[in-house]
């Protein structure tokens, strides 16, 4: 089997976009070799339909998550005792108020438990004196 002799010609400098020695450099801009890139121009009337579907879905999931978190904070505020304020508590203030309220409730339970155990001891000591 014989191979034919193919003659390949090398591309010229002009075809490759390389300036040759005979070509004046003023003809080539510094960005001549960079690929043409089209940049989207931000516009106030941005069309959300141009976004890929997965980005829209991700953004919608994030909006729903934030809405649920905010609803949770609102429900927590409903269970806290009213604090005099002209504005709504922030998330951090809500958490701090919830911690204070829980500690207050714990102290009430501990005081009640201590009071009931004191009462039981005094009742048993009184019964012991009667006999």
From TrEMBL:
- Record-linked PROSITE patterns: BHLH (PS50888)
Protein name (database record): Achaete-scute complex protein 2
What GO molecular functions are on record for this protein? DNA-binding transcription factor activity, RNA polymerase II-specific; protein dimerization activity; RNA polymerase II transcription regulatory region sequence-specific DNA binding
Question: Does the record carry tRNA-binding as a key word?
Answer: no
Q: Which Pfam families match?
A: HLH
The residue ranges flagged as biased composition, category Polar residues, are 117-131
InterPro entries for the chain: bHLH_dom, E-box_TF_Regulators, HLH_DNA-bd_sf
Task: Give the species.
Answer: Nematostella vectensis (Starlet sea anemone)
Q: Which residues form the BHLH domain?
A: 53-105
Asked whether the UniProt record includes Metal-binding among its keywords, one would answer: no
Q: Which UniProt keywords apply?
A: DNA-binding, Nucleus, Transcription, Transcription regulation
Report the record's Gene Ontology biological process terms: animal organ development; epithelium development; negative regulation of transcription by RNA polymerase II
Segments for region (Disordered): 112-131
A Gene Ontology CC term for this entry? Answer: nucleus
